[in-house]
Amino acid sequence: MTAPEFHNKVIYENSRSFGTVFKSKCKETFFPDDPFRWLKNEPCTRRTRKTIKYFIPIFEWLPKYNFGLFKYDLLAGITIATLAIPQGISYANLARLPPIIGLYSSFVPPLIYAVFGSSKNLAVGTVAACSLLIAETIGEKVSPTEDLKLYLGLVYTATFFSGLLQTVMGVLRLGILVDFLSHSTILGFMGGTALLICLQQLKGMLGLHHFTTKTGVVPVLHAVFSHRDEWKWDSFVIGVIFLVFLQITRYVKNKKPKLFWVSAIAPMVVVVAGCLFAYFTHAEKHGIAIVGNLSKGINDPSIQLLNFDPKYISAPLKTGIITALIALAEGIAIGRSFAIAKNEQIDGNKEMIAFGLMNIVGSFTSCYLTTGPFSKTAVNYNAGCKTAMSNIVMSLCMLLVLLFFAPLFSYTPLVALSAIIMSAMLGLIEYEKAYHLFKTDKFDFLICISAFLVVSFIGMETGLMISVGLALIRALLYIARPASCKLGKILDTKLYRDVEQYPCATGIPGILILKLGSPMYFANCSYLSERIARWVRDEQELTESSGNVIEFVLLDLGGVTAIDIMGVETFVEVRKNLETKGIKMILINPRRDVMEKLIVTKFIDKIGKENVFLSTEDAIDACNFSLNSSKEVKEEDL
Amino acid sequence: MTAPEFHNKVIYENSRSFGTVFKSKCKETFFPDDPFRWLKNEPCTRRTRKTIKYFIPIFEWLPKYNFGLFKYDLLAGITIATLAIPQGISYANLARLPPIIGLYSSFVPPLIYAVFGSSKNLAVGTVAACSLLIAETIGEKVSPTEDLKLYLGLVYTATFFSGLLQTVMGVLRLGILVDFLSHSTILGFMGGTALLICLQQLKGMLGLHHFTTKTGVVPVLHAVFSHRDEWKWDSFVIGVIFLVFLQITRYVKNKKPKLFWVSAIAPMVVVVAGCLFAYFTHAEKHGIAIVGNLSKGINDPSIQLLNFDPKYISAPLKTGIITALIALAEGIAIGRSFAIAKNEQIDGNKEMIAFGLMNIVGSFTSCYLTTGPFSKTAVNYNAGCKTAMSNIVMSLCMLLVLLFFAPLFSYTPLVALSAIIMSAMLGLIEYEKAYHLFKTDKFDFLICISAFLVVSFIGMETGLMISVGLALIRALLYIARPASCKLGKILDTKLYRDVEQYPCATGIPGILILKLGSPMYFANCSYLSERIARWVRDEQELTESSGNVIEFVLLDLGGVTAIDIMGVETFVEVRKNLETKGIKMILINPRRDVMEKLIVTKFIDKIGKENVFLSTEDAIDACNFSLNSSKEVKEEDL
Asked: Where does the chain cross the membrane (chains A, B) (predicted)?
C-alpha cells in the first residue's frame, strides 16, 4: 500500500510583504469602490481635467447640458420649491428659529450642492429630526426667547461644525463611520423623533401659549393636558381639516404613484389657504397665531455670529457631531437608493464633501443644517429631475420668494405649519417596517425598538447612543462567538457540509471535521479552544458505543479570512490539547491572510506541511491511509 | 441537450424556530464549554451532590485527598509563603498601604480560593499593577499620609466592588467581557506598569524623602533628579547588591528550570539579610529607612470601614471596575495556561466567582485586591503543587507569621523592598514578546506599544482604554470590511480557490465566482455591494479583450456564517444592480443561519430555488449548460 499522492498542492511561497498587505488593507478600508481607477494610463493634462471633473461634478455634466434636460429639471425644481417653502418655515419653527432662516436654508445650500454633489436625484433641504435635535441641545444651553442672537450664533456654529466634520470625513474617506449607523437604528430613531414632533405639534394645533421646551413624550403630554384651559377648539378644527386634507393627498399618492404631485404641492396649498383664511378673517385677532415678520431680502452674512466661546462651545460641538452623522446617514442612504433605481453610482465620500461644503457655506450665510431629506428627494425623483440643475431651479425660485413674496407668507397660521409637520411625521413612523423586522430579525427589531422607545421617553442622543451601542454589541458578539460546525460527507458526492443543516451528511469513522468561523481574533480565542474541545468530547461520546476512536481532527479554514496572533496561539493550544488525547490536528485550505500569518509565526513548520491540505477530500484520503496502515500493522502484530 | 441533474439538493425545509435559535445562541455565548453536561441523565440526589461539588470544588477533591498529595502541597505551600511575605510587604508599600495589609492579604483570600477555586495550580496573592492603580486612583482623591483611615476605607471599598463585580460577572457568565482584553493589551499594559513601578523604586533605592505621588515617567524622573541632594549612596549600593543578587537567581532559574526554588526564596533571603543588616548596624539611624511598625495579630474586621459616601464613591467604583477586569484577565489567563500544561480544564466563569468571593471576604477582613499572580503561580506549579491545598498551607504559614514573627520583619529596609519589586518588574517588561509581535502582527504590536507608551507617559487607565479601544477598532474594521475574493478552478481538479493565493487557478469564461467574507452585517453592506460592483467591473475590463461577456456572478456563501436584515437587503440591491447589467446572480451553499434568514425574508422565493446550488461545481455546470444552449440558439438563428 502506498501513500496517496496529491496533485492539489498547498502553496506556501507567495507571502506578501507588510507594505503590500498594508496598502491593500488601506485600499479596502478607505477606497473600496476604487474611485480613482480612471487615473490609470492617462496623460497628465487629461488627468488634471478628469480630477477636476471628479471633485467638482458640475464640470462633468454642465458642458453636456441641453434644453431637453432642462425642461425636466425646471418642472422638478419648481415642484420641490413649492415643497421647500412650507417645509422650510415649518422646520425652522421646530428648531425654534425665525421662519425666514428656513427659507434662507433652501437658497444657498442647494446651489453649493449643485456644484459639488454627485447625486442627480437628491434635493437639498432641512430635516425635522436634526431641527428638533438642534432645538433640544442648543436650547438647553441658551433660550431663543431670551437671547435670540446668541441662540442663532450657536446654531450657525453647530452647522459649521457639522459641515467641517462632514468635509473632513469625506476627505479622509471615513464613510466607514456612517456604515455603523444601521437602517434599524435610523428607522427607530426617525420613528421616535417623528412621534415626539407629532406630539409637539399639539401646541400649534391646540393654539397653546404655554408649553414645555422639553422633548420627551411625558413632559409634552403633561404640558398639553395641564393647559386644558388654553385649548382653542377653532384652531384645532382648522388644524384637523388641514391634516385630513394632507393625509388624503398622501393616500392618493400611495394609491396612484403618478399623482405624486398632488401630495407634493399639498403643503403649499395648505399654506396658501391658511394665509388667505388668516388674511381675510384677521385670524390673529381671534387668537389663531400666525408666523409673522417675514421681511424681504436675501440671506445676511452670518459669519460674524459664529461663536467659539469656550463657555458655550460644548453644545454646538455635540450638536454638530450628532447632526452631521445623522444628516450623512440619511442623505447618503437616500442618494444611494435612488441612484440604484436609476442604475447610477454615487460615491459616499464625495457626497460627504458636498454636504460638508454646503453646510460650511450655509453657516456663513444664515442657513442651518441641511441634507438630502427623503420626502423632497422622492418628489424630485418622481417629478423627473435629470441633474442637480433642479436644485439650482429650486434655489432661484427661493430667491424670487425671498426678494418679492416672503411677506405674503407672514400670514401663515401656525396651525397650518403644525398640520404640515404632523402629516410629514406620520409618514415617518413606519410601524410596518418595524413589524417586518420583528418577523425576520429579532435583534434588528431590538435595535430599532430601543431607539424608538429611548428617543421618545428619555432623549434623542441617548436613544441614538443606545441603539448604535446595541448594533455594535451585535457585531462584537459575532466576533466573540464565530459559529463553527461539524462537517459530514453527503452520500454519493465529494461534498462536506454542516451535519445539522444537512442531516443526510454522515461522519467518517475516526475523523472529526470541523469548519471554523471567521475571524480568529483575541476576542474568541478561548471560546474557540473550548468549543473545539466540546466538539471532540461530544464526538467521543457519540462514537464510544461504536468502538471508534477519534484519531484525527480536521479543521476546515476555508471560511476563516482573518487571524491575529492570539488566533495562532489558539492553534498551538488546540494542537497541544488534542495531542495529549492522542489526536492529530490537520488544517484544510488556509486562506491567504491566515496562511501568511501561520508562515510568519512558524506554525506551519511546527505542525508540518504534511498536515496541511488544500481540500477536505485530500485530507480524508491521507487520514484513511494512515488509519488503514496502522490497522494493518496492528493486524500483522496479531 | 438536456439540463444537468443535480443529486446535491439544497435543503430548505429544516428552519429552526426563533426559540431554538435563541437558545442555541445563548448557549454559545454564555455556556460555550457546556459546563452542566454532567447533569444529564442523573437521578435527583446525585444531581444535587454533583451541583454542590461543581460550585464548591473543595468537596470534589478533599474527600479523595491523601497524605501522598499533601507532601507535595506542603512543600509548594511553604515555598509560596516565603515568596508571599516579601511580595506582600512590597506591593502594600506600592499601594501606599501599611505593610501589614500585604501580609493580611495572603492569609484570608487563599483560604476562600481553596474552597471555591477550580484551578489546582493557582497561588493567590496581591499584584503590582493593581496595587499601583489603587495608589494612583484612590490616592488622587485622598492622601494616605493625611487621612489613612479614609484611604484604607476607600481601598477596601474598591476591593469590595471588584469582588462584587467579579462574582456577578461569574454568575451571569460574562467571561466574554474578559475575552476582549487581548494578550497584546495585557503585555503592553503590564510592561508600561512595570516600567513605572521600576522608576518609582528609585525613591527607595536612592533613599529619597521627597517624591511625587504622580505615576508618569516624566514626573517620576523629574522628582528623582530634582532631589539630587537627597541621594544616599550607601542605600543605593545596598539596593544594587540586592538587585544583582535577585537577578542572578532569576538567571539561574532561567538556565536551569529545576533550580526554580533559588529564585523563589531569593526575595525572602533578601528580606532576612536586610533585616539582619538593619538590626545590627542600626541602619535607620544612618538614614536607611525601614518598614517599621508591624504588630502581631491576625486581620482585624474591616467591614465597618467600607465607605459608600457619594462624595468619594466614584474613585473606589472606578478602581474596582478596572482592577476587577485586570485581575480577572491575569488570573484566568494564568490559571488556563497552567491547566493546559497539565491537560486539565478550568472554567473561567467559576474562577470569577471564586476570585469575587475571595475579594468580597477580603474587603471585610482588612485585605486588598488579590488575584492569581503569575510569579507566585509559576512557583507553586514548579514546586509541584497538586491541589488548592498549597494555598491553605501558605495561608497557615502566614497565620504563624502574623501571630509570632511579624515584628521581626519591621526591620526590613525599604531599599530591600525596592530591589525585590524592581527585580520582579524587570521580568515583566517582555520586550522579546513585543518584538515577536512586531515581526508577526503589526496591528497587535500597535495595540501593545500604545498601551505601553500611554501607560508610561500619560496614565494607566488611559493606556488601558486606548489599547482596548484599538483592539475593538480592529474587530470592528474586520466587520466593516470582510475580505472577499475571486475564485478560479485549479487545473485537473474540481477545486475552486482564491486566484490571488493560487495563481494556477483560472477563471471560467462568462462566469465570475466570488467568495464572500463573513458576516454580512449592517456595517459592511454598502462596502459589499460596492466591492462586488468593482469585482464585476474589473472582470469586465479583463475579459473585454477576449470578447467574453460575464453572464453569471456566482456568490459562494460557504464562509458566511451570519447575516442580518441589511445583509439580505444587500443581496436584493446587488441582484438589481447585476440585472441591469444583464448578469444573473447565483448563490452557492448558504449556511444554516444565512439560509434561514433568506427563507424568512422570502429572498429565496425572489431569486428562485433554481438559482441556489449546494456546490460551485453544480452551479458552474448549470451556467455552462445555459451558456451553451443560448450559444446554440444564436448559432441556429444564424
From this structure: 69-85, 122-139, 151-174, 180-199, 235-253, 259-280, 321-340, 352-371, 383-405, 411-431
